[in-house]
Design a protein that fits this description.
The protein is an alpha+beta fold. The protein is built from 8 helices and 18 strands. Strand 9 and strand 10 form a beta hairpin. The protein is globular and about 55 Å long.
Amino acid sequence: MKHRLIRWLPAIVVPAAIAAGAIAIPLAAGAADLPVKSPADVLRLVASSDTKAFSGTVEQTTDLGLPSIPKMGGGSSSADSSIASTLSLLMGDHSAKVYVDGPTKVRVQLLDQLAERDAIRNGSDVWLYQSSDQSVTHATIPAHEKSGETPAPTATPDATATTPQALAEKFLAAVDPSTQVTLGPNTKVANRDAYDLVLTPRTDATLVGSVSIAVDGQTGLPLQVQVTARGASSPSFQAWFKDFTPSAPDASVFSFTPPKGAKVTEQAPKTGEHSTATNRPKPTVTGTGWATIVSLPAGTVPAQALADPLVAQLTQSVGGGRALSTSLMSVLVTADGRLLAGAVPVSALQAAAQ
């Protein structure tokens, strides 16, 4: 319970701002040569994409205006190390190898400096591997869940959530009348011709200025996502394919054998999963469109969590509680343990809390 706040942050922030950054993406020389399409045509192209197998290298950068995470010394607890590892996914620059062959064969290799983290699903087997401490977690998906979503066997954020495809799906699913949809100039990503689909909020109540999604002109698969904060001149979020191959990876990619000497933890399927989910705090949603605020009830965040040094470093004291403020997302924890979040200024969360 102590670190519940930190565990909530990825679930709230990752869908909108896990791969943030502000550097220019190198594009291949020459303009993209594509048939003329309308914004509605490109939306239909994405919706009709049937590319189920592909591989490539995903680059992501992060600059949310948050302080750097301190390095954990030898005396730190495993919980603190886990927190630092989780937050590094939100705040660091990363490169990942991504392999997909349908919904039941996925491998993401997150390449850190001098280390590697792997998340593999091969049929009913799910593996998580960290080379830094030679730890392996293995879980088996129950038969009735094999065709559905893969539950993460630990609290580690789903690495596939950082791919341009997954990120774009979240933004596109939220398109409604509060969003203006236009096309920018055609572009190139991973040396592939792409349409530039631009989503612009019709309200100034959000921190988001625009979202740019590069859609592969051949497959309809999103190859790049950029988010620009309101008033900014360059993206404060971007994730893109450095290279991309729209074909099935070799089957051996999805096989995993724990390295010699690795500590393997078997995680059995939890009983009563549905009843546990039912007992979780239920969110309240206020506002609409880009100004939506999600609130969780009193007691969601225990008082001990606010005393954690990392939480103190990442948040600031404000009227009514403590707040995490980034260029694209704000989170407020009230004195009674309520949690509010949205792509809005902290002041909007404070008003909603009252």
